[in-house]
Design brief:
Elements (H helix, E strand, L loop, with lengths): L1 H19 L3 E3 L2 H17 L1 H7 L1 H6 L4 H16 L3 E3 L2 H23 L2
Antiparallel strand pairs: 1-2
Helix pairs in contact: 1-2, 1-6, 2-5, 5-6
Amino acid sequence: MKMIINLIVTAVIVYLLANFLPGVHVDGFGSSIIVVIVLALLNFLVKPLLQLIAIPITILTLGLFLFVINALIIMLCSYIVGGFQVNGFFPALLFSLVLSIVQSIVGGLMNND
């Protein structure tokens, strides 16, 4: 039950961020649910491989390259999901940063119950 609530809350966050951030567009709430599911799968399957390959660059940049990997995951999700569009690297980077921050805040508030 907690996973479903987390999925719905994250879908609401994605939908709201797409309405506020420039360069990001979601067709509707159904598309934002699909975006959340695809992002979860990409974070589970693809992101660890990218992090493993990018260990030297990540060490040289003191971990800042992980932001680039997050933006690439968002752009890949945009390519896979038809109702989700990101117009370039910097909107994807901004979207991933704000999504992570808002998810952390909302997750902290949900766990305090």
